[in-house]
Amino acid sequence: MITYFDGKFVDDAEAVISVRSRALNYGLGCFGGIRGYLAADGRQINLFRVGDHITRLMHSARVLHMRLPGAHAEICGLVGELLRRNEVHHDVYVRPLVLNGSTKLAPVMREEDSVLAIYCLPLQRYMEKDAIDVCVSSWRRATDNAIPARTKATGLYLNSALARREAHDNGYDEAIFLTEYGKVSEGSAEHVFIVRDGVLYTPPSTEDNLDGITRRSLIALATEDLGLKVVERVIGRTELYVADELFLCGTGAQIQPVRSVDRRTIGDGGIGTVTARLTEHFNNVVRGRVEARRGWLTPVWE
Ligand code: PMP
User: Fold this and answer.
1) Could you say which residues form the signal peptide (predicted)?
2) Domain segments of the chain: what residues?
3) Ranges of H-type helices in 197-243
4) Structure pTM?
5) Hey, what CATH class is 2-122 in?
6) What ipTM, to 2 d.p.?
7) CATH fold for the domain made of 132-286
8) Of 49, 131, 182, 186, which sees the most CB atoms within 10 A?
9) Active-site annotation holder among 8, 104, 129, 152
10) Residue 130 Cα, ligand 1 centroid: separation in angstroms?
11) Atom of ligand 1 at shortest distance to CA of 215?
12) Mutate to test the pocket of ligand 1, among 160, 190, 211 (most ligand atoms within 8 A of CB)
């Protein structure tokens, strides 16, 4: 595969960073995750909300005293260029990554040490099962005042990895974090939605969760296109147990139904009607079948 690394498109093998780098030693970096979807013609790839992903990456960089090597439009252009250079005609995941390339000792953040890399990989499903079993993690979500939770800081994923490992060791597919204050935050790499009496609820983004693009998209699709009600409010742990429906969402996971939380079955253990409706609409949107939402898609090929 071809990867963009520090100003050049190179072979993957050449896109390397020193073991001495502050990125590796101290987790100084931030990243994004963007999906490109194969269109109905079997050739075109449409990037989903690439501009919003790059804006979020720039926000993460700002919080972490990092910088990107160009303006917003240029970085979006590099993503398209990467896919063209790799001749991508399949569903794809793109990972832009800003790393601290300094090899000096001590965790010091300096804008000028930023190195941008962008790589891509084929990606279909993120999780294998149609409906997953999740637990509430014993690990708390890192607070925004400790490791900025609204950013995609690389170091923050130690928190996610600990929760995922614990979940897997205990026979679950995924974990849901609570905040330091004991309220529902998010999954290891997904946001949480519950459905009760036909209404969708999701924690506000101030509950130490990522500024999520799928979350934002689903709120718009549910309220504006499907006439559903969505309430953003603090959610208590046991509200998860009595939800009629529960799903996780994210760029990787897309819409991932949950069938149990801490061994309490959600609804009848199947995929709920609201989740199914939203999933169908979301899939139509990302595949370019909803004219009114074409503005969220950026074609890669002429
Ligand atoms: N939370 C975390 C911690 C994540 O890593 C992700 C994946 N980017 C999400 C939520 C979902 O966010 P998005 O919809 O923007 O991909």
Assistant:
1) none
2) 2-122, 132-286
3) 213-220, 237-241
4) 0.97
5) alpha beta
6) 0.99
7) D-amino Acid Aminotransferase; Chain A, domain 2 (3.20.10)
8) 186
9) 152
10) 19
11) 14
12) 190
